[in-house]
Amino acid sequence: MKKLIKHIKKLLQRIFKRFASNSQQTSPLINSRPLETSIKSVSPRWESGLVLVCSQCANERSNSFHPTSKSSTASEDLENWLKSRLKFEGLWGEFRVVSTSCLGICPKSGITVVIVSNGSGGNSPCLIVNPHSDRELLYSRIKQNKG
User: Fold this and answer.
1) Using CA atoms, how far apart are residues 94 and 91, in angstroms rounded to an integer?
2) Which of 5, 32, 100, 137 gets the highest tally of CB atoms within 10 A of its CB?
3) What percent of the chain has a predicted confidence (pLDDT) above 90?
4) Would you say 59 and 111 are in contact if contact means Cβ atoms under 8 Å apart?
């Protein structure tokens, strides 16, 4: 059994070396297409920014008085408010607001929001936002990313 495992390891090593040395050749695993072209790349419509709202933060029911918001969370209320505000000001499409699962910040109060933009240079800080009192401030910060 040990000899068989050693033989299989040697075969796998040879296969990996062969693929590594022939990286420009097509991969037999991906319909004979070159590996670097197997993943399609598209330009998004939201070139000014992407706003990520953690759906796990402030999971308690919102205190909103809006009749349609009775069963929504504070995160959902914030996300919907941002979407409506961007649409109202004609910025929907340049910016996109999406909910995301846990971002790993987990504040005791507030919602974690990340604003990702082309100008951020890969540095997008996590913001801890009060879903009611910080809405306008957050919206102003989003608009600052307009290119």
Assistant:
1) 6
2) 100
3) 33
4) no
* 126-129 vs 95-100, strand pairing mode: unpaired
Give the 3-state secondary structure of residue 54. strand
Structure-token match 């670097």, residue found: 36
- Strand pairing category for 111-116 and 49-54: antiparallel
Cα angle value 38/40/41 (rounded, 5°) = 135
CB contact at 8 A, 88 and 134: no
Q: Is the predicted pLDDT of residue 24 greater than 60, yes or no?
A: no
Q: How far apart are CA 137 and CA 91, in angstroms?
A: 17
Mean pLDDT of the chain: 79
Give the count of beta carbons closer than 10 Å to the beta carbon of residue 120: 14
